[in-house]
Amino acid sequence: MFFAKMIGLGLLCIMLLSFGQSYLKATHSGAKITGQDWATARRDSAGVAPSPLQFKETAIVQVYTAPTFGWRGLFAVHPWIIFKKAGETQFQRYEVVSWGSTNVVRHNYALPDGYWFGAQPVPIVDHRGAAAEAMIPHIEAAIKRYPWPHTYRVWPGPNSNTFLAHIGREVPELRLDLPANAIGKDFRSLAHPVGLPPSGRGIQVTLLGVLGLTLGAEEGVEINLLGLNLGVDVRSPALRLPFVGRLGSEKSIGEAE
Predict the structure, then answer these.
(1) How far is CA 79 from CA 5, 53, 125, 168, in A?
(2) Which residues make beta-bridge pairs with 85?
(3) Three-state DSSP class for residue 212
(4) Which residues partner with 216 through β-bridges?
(5) In sequence order, which residues have a C-beta less than 8 Å from that of residue 16 and are 6 or more positions away?
(6) pLDDT digits (tens, 9 = 90+) for 14-48
(7) Which residue from 68, 220, 71, 61 is spatially nearest to 142, judged by alpha carbons?
(8) Digit-coded pLDDT (tens) for 223-236
């Protein structure tokens, strides 16, 4: 009993410290946690994506995340994927958005690297050249096979993170590593509680994304308690924490070819 209490107290301390770090990060960056008007929030280009004109002859695949809108950004991120084939001069952007249509999978809903309602996007995957060219058809096929194109639930899923996790499972060459605060990435149907993690390499056991364990090539070891994830990245040493996502060494997101 004493041991169980100590574990519970330790987990509570981790949660509180992680939330505090997330709050400090948000306020330090100047983010408006409350009172922000979504209609006037910044959505222009952040200038972080490569120019599709400059890299016309290069195939590119990237995944971005940004804190979700308003106070929800203290808890979770919103991800999306962009790509273009060699010879193309425009990116294609795909993501899941809950409002505005019965089809939650959106194509070119926003600029490739646009601010997500005031939040700056951060690239977490970057593949270029022949490798990117080869995986784009598989990404397009995975988008068409997304199991929940008309369903959205903030918690525990399916949501925008569930969508990217689905693509990662279908296209392991993507080497997708969604952060620990990508709530919804572990959502799986009751009919398929065991399978691949979002990286597409390893194993995941989860009950509707609210209780589970992930052992992944990119994720390392991660446990899920009520949709809040804690773990350790072994290959690129870091703690995987709720609210903040990652605390430790920077992770390589891919090399240009």
Answers:
(1) 36, 24, 11, 12
(2) none
(3) strand
(4) 202, 220
(5) none
(6) 666 666 655 566 654 545 555 567 778 899 999 99
(7) 61
(8) 999 999 999 999 89
